[in-house]
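The protein record now logged underneath.
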Amino acid sequence: MAQVRRLEPSPARRGETTVFKAWERFARGEDDLSGVRPEIAISWHRCRDQYRVDPSLAEAPAAVAEVGHALEHDVVFAELGFRAASLVHEVGPLGGIVTITDGTGRVLAQWGDPATRAVAAEANLAPWFCWAEGATGTNGMGTALMSYTPVLIRGAEHWCQAFHDWTCAGVAVRDVVTRKPVAVLNISCWRGDLPASVGSWLGNVATMTQRILRQHAKDDGAELIAAFNHARSASRAPLAVVDPAGRVVLADDTAGVLLGIPGSTPAPDPAVRWKPELPEFIRAAMYACEQAARNPDWAGSTQILTRLAAEPTSISFRPVFLAGHLIGNVVSFGVTEGDPLPRSGDDVPLRGQPHRMVATRDNRMVLLRLPEVAFAQSDGNDVWLSTDQGLLRAASPGLDRLETELGDAGFLRVHRQYVVNLSRIREVERRYKGELFLVMDDQAQTMVPVSRRNAPTVRRALEI
C-alpha cells in the first residue's frame, strides 16, 4: 500500500480529529477504529482489505465504457432526474450538488452550485466516472450501493484523503425483486454541512421511485403467470415460473411440494414472492437468467436434489420476456431440454462457505466464529445475532442475505424472522396443536418458533 502522507484536516473539519486520526492509523495497517461509526469501519475494511483502494487516490477513475442495464430501469433514471431537480432548489443555495449514478457507481448526471461543480470536476466527481467503493473508496455514492438505507459520509470518513473536505449523503434505489441496486441519488457539499433533513429527503425519494419498480414487478408477475398457463396447456410435467432472483411466482401442486412452497397459489405480493427452500435451485435459476440475458434463444437444464427424493430431479429452464426484457423462466420438472448447466466450477457463481460473521458493538466490529452464533433474528432490515458474547447487531443487513451466505454452513431458516444454527439446538418442544419450538443452547435458552411452512424442512434436518 502506498505511504500515506500526513495532512492535517482543513479548519472546517477540525471537529473530526478523532476520525481523522483513526483513518491515519487504519490506512497505515493498524486495526484500532475507536471513535469510528460501525458502518464506516466496515466500509474501510472493504476498501483496505478487499478492494485495496489506495487512500492517496486523488480522483475517480473513468467508468467502464459500456455498462448494460435493463431497459425498464431507464424510467428510474428519469424519475430520479425529476426528483433531483427539486432537491437542487434546496441544496444549491448551500453550495450543494446533486448526482445520479447507475447501479455500478457510474455517474450519469449532475446538477447544483456551479462553484462546487468546478471543485468536484477536479476529483472527477462528474459524469462518466466511477464512484463505486471498489474504485474510489468510502463515499456517499459507492457506500450507498452497499447499504439498504441512506448513508452519510462526513469529511475524514471518506477512505481517500483527497475527499476529506467533502460531506456526501446518498441512497440506493433497489430492484424490488432482486434487491440489487439500480441507481443512487447523492447530495454533496464541499467544506460545508448538509441540512439535517437530508436523510429523510433521500429516503422519501427512494420510496417514491421504488413504487415504479413495484408496479413493474406486478406487471412482470402477471406475465409470468400467463406464461405458466400457456406452458400448462402444452405439458403435463410439473411446472413453476420464477423471477430473476429465483423466487417463485406460481407453481403447480407437484412443483410446489418439490420446492417446499404452496402449490397453485400465486405469490401474495409482487415484491415478496415464494422462496424455495433449495439454495441449489435458486442458484440454477439465477444462472439461467444470466445466460438468457446474453442469448434470448437460450434454454438449459440441470439436476437438483429436492426435499422428497433421494435421487436428483431433472429441471429445465425456458426464458420469459416482456417488452424485450427478461422477467424470469418457466421451469419444467422431470424434463431435460437445452444446454446443460455446469454443476460446479467457475461458470456458476457459487459463494464460498464463510468462516466468520461480522457483528457490531458500539463503535467496534466483532469477528465471530460460526459456532459462536446460536441464531439470527430480523428486526426490519436489521439482523440481531444471539452469540456467546451476548446480543450483537449483524454487519450485513437483511435476513435473506444472511440465509444465503450461511445456507451451506449448518444454518437453517425456520421462520420468516429466524435463522438458527442447527448445532446449537438443545431441545425441540411440540405444542398441543402441533406447533414446534426450538430450545437453543444460548444463555437464555431462547425458544425459537418454527413456522408451519418450515416445519417439514426442520424435521428432515434434525431427523425427527
